[in-house]
Amino acid sequence: MKTRLSLFYLLLLPILFVSAVIGVCIGSTPIGWREVLHVLGLKFLPQGWLDPGSVTPADLVVVWLIRIPRVLVAAFVGAGLASSGVIMQALFRNPLAEPSLVGAGPGAVLGGVISFVAGWSVISVVSLPLAAMLGALLALALVYAMATRGGVTPVTTLLLAGVAAGSLLSALSSLLLSLNIVNWQMAQEIVFWMMGGLDARTWTHFWMCAPFVLMGLLAALLQARDLDLLQQGEETAASLGVDVESAKRMLTLTAAILTGASVAVAGLVGFVGLIVPHGVRLVLGPSNRALLPASALAGAAFLILCDLVARTIHHPAEIRLGIVTALSGGPIFIWLLMRRYRDVTVG
């Protein structure tokens, strides 16, 4: 297992680094890696170590204010969605589970749509992410209220309540969109945001997302043992000293925070929380202590590359990020399913 994990990181870390560098260098205005290093040096090295005239003001703006924040936001969104997917798949003991299963994704979308319709998104750039995160947490509270009876929340009931609440919240988002379709500019902004995308992301979006993703990932790692035991069944976990109901509440809250923070700054980006954890699990096995950081890094690399494709394949127009993740993740997931089915049949 240790050898497999070491080989996995030996392959993944260079891919993540190279994808991040390419993401910063490639765009409507190509910038060489030396200029990128000069910009980073001017920002982080002591004043006077580098000549400020070594890069143009335009390169400084493009690299530091546009591309680096976008790549970092893509990395943290990918990490957040993949980590949330690991939690959901282990908690529900289902490799087809994904981050929006307990209503956090549709709740975040509804919060974002309300921000658009109410005009808050025009007033402040942070109102949209805040409304989306609040929507995710309120959706989780609604799902838990529906699924809990007498202090007990059966996983099956939680799943059904999440599906029902997600459908209701998605319908409300569509209703608000249809009621405001006459305002074409607003409707276009809502549709584009619901399709996912990282255009015009800044350092503000990074700081709105990164702390919550890091906090969620740390919380998930601290709960990795409980998650491993719950994956074996609630009775087994309880017999080994796990407070099952408290663990489920904390794990679903962690997944909701990771999902809400990601959707808040990127819109609804599908397949990352489904395909990445499932693929990493096939390579590394079921241990969530190993899966969580590995899936986070794999999700970061996957979304950086998908965003790079989204903004370069049809230049100068951008394809929405959610479309690229679905088109790239769908065939991979079908291949994994067929491979697994073939292995089971042969076995």
Q: How would you portray this structure in words?
A:
There is one protein chain. This protein has 347 residues and is mainly alpha-helical. The chain has a single domain (2-346), classed as ABC transporter involved in vitamin B12 uptake, BtuC. It is 77% helix and 0% strand. It contains 15 helices and no strands. The protein has helices at 2-25, 33-44, 57-91, 104-118, 120-123, 127-147, 155-179, 184-194, 203-222, 224-231, 234-239, 244-266, 272-284, 288-312, 321-346. Helix 1 (2-25) packs antiparallel against helix 3 (57-91), helix 6 packs antiparallel against helix 12 and helix 14 packs across helix 15. The radius of gyration is 21 Å and the shape is globular. The chain starts with a helix and ends with a helix. The mean pLDDT is 89.
Name the CATH homologous superfamily: ABC transporter involved in vitamin B12 uptake, BtuC
- Count of distinct strands: 0
Supply the CATH class: Mainly Alpha
Which structural class fits the helix and strand makeup? mainly alpha
Kindly report the CATH topology: ABC transporter involved in vitamin B12 uptake, BtuC
| Proportion in β-strands | under 5%
Whole-number count of domains: 1
From the alpha-carbon coordinates, what is the Rg to the nearest angstrom? 21 Å
Provide the helix percentage. over 70%
The average pLDDT is 89
Under the CATH scheme, the architecture is Orthogonal Bundle
Uncertain spans: none
The best one-word shape is globular
Biggest pleated-sheet summary? none
Q: State the end-to-end distance.
A: 22 Å
Helix-strand pattern: HHHHHHHHHHHHHHH
* Count of helical stretches: 15
